[in-house]
Design a protein that fits this description.
The complex is a heterodimer of chains A (236) and B (267). With 236 residues, chain A is α/β, with parallel strands linked by helices. Chain A has ten helices and ten strands. The chains are: A alpha/beta (236), B mainly alpha (267).
Amino acid sequence: MHHSIEIRHLSFAYPDGHKALDDVSLKIEPCEKVALVGPNGAGKSTLILHLNGILQGQGEVCVAGLPVTKENLGKVRARVGLVFQTPDDQLFSPTVYDDVAFGPLYQGLPIEEVQARVEEALETVHMRAYAHRVSHHLSVGEKKRIAIATVLSMKPEVLVLDEPTAGLDPRARRSLIKLLDELPLTMLVSTHDMYMVRELFPRMVIMDQGRIVADGDTQALMADEALLEAHGLEKP
Amino acid sequence: MHIHFLDSYRPGDSLIHRLEARIKFILTIAFILTTALTPQDAWPVYLLLLTIVLSVIVLSDLGVGTVLKRAMLAIPFILAALPTVFTLKGEVAWQVSLGSLEIRFYQPGLVRFVSIALKSWLSVQAAIVLASTTQFTDLLMAMRAVGVPRLMVAIFSLMWRYLFVLADEALRLMRARAARSGQSDRPDLKPGGNFAWRTRITGGMAGSLFIRAIERSDRIYNAMLARGYDGEVRSRPLPKFELIHWLMLIGGLLALVCLLGLAHFGF
């Protein structure tokens, strides 16, 4: 059985020379739920963008057993559901339905199957009644759920979320946490929400200045207040 | 992760970089005007104009190659002038026969085309040097100094500020689309959808970018109101224009006028 995510010695620098990732290695087992924490600018988003080849650095990235290379990009992107921080970036179609259908339609699935997948994905995020709404007019919490549905419709093996609870009110946050808890997928979630990390993720990876500085049991790492403080984090 | 290619300013410490922005701005406009007003067959004057531009480029440390590469921007304008070669009739300069079709290039048209090409090429180079050696804020100051209405200057300044935000937003949208453009494991399925569908998706993206730009402008306007904006643009007083600046400006303008006189009345 392959690892869901396997990153070996990954380094990446932006064209302006800023080194965003510095020798990062990480393994995540199937169905494991892992939190990725660290201060702003630590390289979390950059790392996430490597998981489906939007950025390609030096080193090795394998997702669901497939190396992320140019030839594999299409297949990798079908296996990794990447949910961006700003749902507005993710929802670019006029209606909720169109957006959730984008992935399956792009893959060329027959229309009945697209229909079934859209319904299933919307059902999973409890947004079935919203199919023909205009994404533009939804609340942030609703947009977040739709954004998750847009990748669930591709039936990915790995779900990657960038700060899913940012900007949500307590109720929307609570229902999102419940939703993430229910989903039986491998999950890597970048976040600043330490309460959610404690509640939902047994394993936590701390990044700072492009490196992984700690990786282990959430409870144990959270007990180490000096470590948290050194990397701009707060104990919940 | 930002788009910077729109920002043409290249930091530096050359003579041209240090030159007062108002002098640069006015002389660049004057240079472009001179180029535009030069008669179409005054070839020696074009050569002199090119010499001026090249010397300024050399003085600016931008690298002649870099500027020439960027000057490719002039190509669309040049292409637009191409038909004159066939339409401005006169003496036939060159004739090509393609089977029963005869194509004639006319002498006057050729002269006009080459001079339009030279004019646009020279003007674009001058503008590139100006934009590469002057901070945008200094350019705005220069515009204000020559009497461009304050509201216009404010619009330019806001446009400049938010162009990058918008370009970043467009980049993120395209990234989100790429992230969901996957390929199924089933070998019978071809990814990509058909052309009409892809067009519709791109149209939706453009529409959503447009709506977001409008909403953002509303929020910006509210933020301006919240800080006391009343429709009147106020700005800091302009820095002093010293005697030496006047001398440089007048010297430059005189040189260009002489050049123009030379072009019109001969040597």
